[in-house]
Amino acid sequence: MSAKDTRQTVPALGADTLLEALEEAERHDSEGCMVLSAVRDASGAIVDFEWLWANPAASRALGHGTDSLRGKRLGDVSPVAGLGGRLAILKQVVESGRPAADSFPEGDAWLLGTAVPLRDGVLLRLRDVTSALRMEEGLRDTLDWVRDVLESTPEAFFTVDAEWRITYVNRQAAEITGRTQEQVFRKILWQACPELVGTLFERELRRVAAEGSSTIFEVRTSPERWHEVHAWCSGQNVSVFSRDITGKKRAEAERDALLTREHSGRLEAEALVRERTQELVAARERLVQSEKLAMAGQLAEGVGHEINNPLSYVSGNLQFALEQMETVLQGQVQGGPLAEALDALREAREGAERIRVIVRDLQTFARADEPHLSPVDVHAALEFGLAMAMPHLRYRAEVVRRYSQVPTVMAHEARLGQVFLHLLVNAAHAIPEGDFTRHRVTLSTWLEGPWVVVEVADTGHGMTPEVAERVFEPFFTTRAVGEGSGLGLSTSLGMVRSMRGELSVDTTPGAGSMFRVRLPVTAVVADAVAQGAPRDVPERKRVLVVDDEPQLASLLRRLLGRHHEVVVTHSGREALALLERDADFDRVFCDLMMADLTGMDLHAELTARGPELLSRFVFMTGGAFTERARAFLQSVPLPRIEKPFDPGTLRALVEGAPPRDRALEPLPRVARRG
């Protein structure tokens, strides 16, 4: 007999009424319900189960329609991991007559199945427990994470229940007591740690437990360790968190000691403040006077610039007229109206010269820190400073000279020697006495483009970056009180800048320092004038004059036009437009300060568009009374002449123009607005 022929089904036992009742009762239930009938083989053993009925919720849980389940067996509907693999449990329910429950996955859900035995079958209820399982899993993960956090934190933590039994203790808390976690876990706190009995720790914890409150207090856990304790009550449990504050307590102790020392020195500081206040009052009075002088200097500088422009063409025209008159009267008998007119012109020229000297003195007053510069031999200035500093160096270091062939520089000889003296004395103080053979002070010179560089290097103790940043500040010194004013290097910096140079330092702690002085080489003006008067038949040159003073431009045309072609423009913008058409000039005389486009702006344009033309430029200035103009004259190594100028200087500059083997190309045009 086949298994189908021998099985005993529930309907065969008269269960139609039961199925109808179940279908009516369970149709709208949210939990699944189904009836399975046992399928037996020829020997009567259960080999499978077959669906007789299932409500809609059970069908949805298994992914089938209600009618499609009837007559199907376990393996036809569910995989082995799901309900299809629960044959043994269902068989046990039928054979033992006792209910059983088990959970299993179906698709993306977890179902809890409860099987109740029927006659030769089971009634199986299904409930979705996916959310409950996920919540339980999340809770386990959270507890594991909290435990990991509490074990990895550097602070101590433990909890006790209402009977003061330790319910959790992390490793750090156990280490503070000198015991292991196993030794104190589940023990009464006062028995596990009897040293806490009668202390502030016990009193505070008992108060928190009695009041259901929280507290923060500090305890000394050992002679050298302090802890800050946070305790709070949660239900019947008390939680305790403790962190080490030993560093904080030590800092507080050091602060208290410092306050004590500061208090003891307060009276001395107050006395020193009174003394310094008196000095500051005196310094303030000197500063007010200095500001007044500075304002007067600025006024003098501006007035001098305004006077120099008209004075230039007055002096120049007088000189031109004198030269023409002397030519006309050459070989004629002395006396007569023309001779008297010639004397009048000479007197007028002397008056203009007196005005020039007065203006020059005003500008000297305005630029007290800018002495008259002249060609200076840096090696002679170095030797002067070395001779003065030798008493400081003799027993400290060997002096090494590494001089290169360099040209003269535009400087003030006495002040330059003073700068080198300051640097050499500073090097001597950086080297300890008594070790002459081990230390050196090296003096080096070399040419670097338009600059002569002088380096004073020592093998002393050097400076830290913090000291190097402040080394040029006035009154800053690292020497003991009374051994230095802190003005040597700041004064040296001011003098070098007044000579249009630069002073810098490069230092390494423990390895020494190198101070470098950069000074501009002697201007081309001096070289051109030194060549003497122009030849009797000078080579004809093309000259461009750029000046917004029409009279001054006319003067240059008058002085130079006899032997050279002179083109005049009355603004920087007009000159730029001309150079875009014709740039073939041997010499360009350009005013530094003009209204629309200054000589500095014109220089910037040519640097970008026609740098080869800059070697032809000579700047004319009646006084650089703006910060921008001073900075420009210090940074640009081009020849310049001061107004009012000597006609011979102008002619010498034209005759000394750099030779060229080809015509200069016009400037490339650029798009302009408007």
Give an overview of the whole structure.
- This protein is an alpha+beta fold and 674 residues long.
- The protein is 46% helix and 22% strand.
- It has a five-stranded antiparallel beta sheet with strand order 2-1-5-4-3, sandwiched between helices. It has a five-stranded antiparallel beta sheet with strand order 7-6-10-9-8, sandwiched between helices. A five-stranded mixed beta sheet has the order 12-14-15-17-16.
- A hairpin with a 5-residue loop joins strand 1 and strand 2.
- Helix 15 (378-393) packs parallel to helix 16 (413-429) and helix 16 (413-429) runs antiparallel to helix 18.
- The longest helix has 64 residues, at 266-329.
- The protein starts with a helix and ends in a 19-residue tail after the last helix.
